[in-house]
Queue: 2 jobs
Job 1
Amino acid sequence: MSGGALRLGVLGEIAAWRGAEPLDIGHARQRHVLGALLLEPGTAVPGEELARRVWGARPPRGTSALHGYVSRLRRALAGGGADIVRDRAGYRLEAEAGPAAVDVCRFRALAVRAGAAERDEEAAALWDEALGQWRGEAFAGADAPWFRAQRERLAAERLAARLDAADVALRLGRQGPLLDELAARAVDHPLDERMAGQLILALHREGRHAEARASFERVRLRLAEELGLDPGPALRRLGERLANA
């Protein structure tokens, strides 16, 4: 095995690496057992709860299947800086590097640091690093109800991070590379005033004033027709800036 730190991931397919080399953590169900422990490294998950996470409402009878997957995972992780420990409280993933070994924990820690950063340049770098932890949708391919619920929750966290990162980029005048992303989000969330405002501001900053005004009118009309609402204060102020541009 090549050297390097152990990394464990759920922000994409459930996976493990030693340095740059992927570890063989087995077939899908076995990977799901590992994934069900990675959201809370160091925290014990009772056996019944772990089985429910992995199999849903119809777990296998007895404990032999779960024990077998855990035993094989322990062998796969042996010497890699992590182990699955079982005690009276249940099963827990212990990593020598602590939560930092797991991509979702790194993402959350970096997001906290980015939100607390005093300088926008520092915040932008931290948001880039945080969002760079993602390889695809969380727990990709795991379809038990627990995984679907966690995937939805993590997708919301990722979207919130992207919005905060976009605010920082706009303050720094880095709107050009963001335009396609902002436009796609505005289409996917046509009644979200924050997303609309980010796109409108980016277009305005890029000198695309007619497109910015058209975007403002689209969201204003949609809010009125579907919700019976006028734009909120922030979007109204942006509309006034466009009118005076």
Job 2
Amino acid sequence: MSDRVASARTERGEVVLLRRDGALELRVNGVFVMDTVHTETERLLASATLRAAVRTDGVRVLIGGLGLGFTLREVLADPRVREAHVVEIEPDLLDWHRSGLIPKTATAIQDHRVVFSVGDITEVIGAQPPESFDVLLLDVDNGPDFLVYEANSAIYRSDFLSRCAKVLAPNGTVAIWSADTAPELRAAMHAVFGNCEEIAIPVELGRARTTYHLFLSGR
């Protein structure tokens, strides 16, 4: 049984925030995106990547996809982070955060280090000066083979990854979340960066068991 907390219709379809068994769940066009219970991979997206950051302070992070805010919250827990630039394509989702509908990450939304941009991640990345960020964290869709929004397929291709490489500072790291293994994505990241580590994280969704994946490359 679920209750609808908020919903919005955009050119990309319907975005819905549900409450199910005391937890919040985000769905886009009827497809499960994330919830406030199974947050392991969203948090690991931040912590595993920041572990690779060599800077001792002043770390600049760009997060593609706000979601329910757990990646952002994990980023801000690192005292080295000077700025967290969050890019979210759905303004309604950002409004829901700002109005307090997602209390578990409300403090992160209000942190003075956070800068928000509403827009497409490919366009925002393309507009950044070279070597702008030490860390790029991309959790924009469910992965190249489970797209919620077809246009997001560009995120997993070499052209966009090459743009990511340009905005990374020396020794910078990029990480991409996927709902499943993605050999073509791994190959593309390896081709652009010369390296790619795949981390598999087992997750239990109710009675179902699955595995989410992180793909990390360093400049």
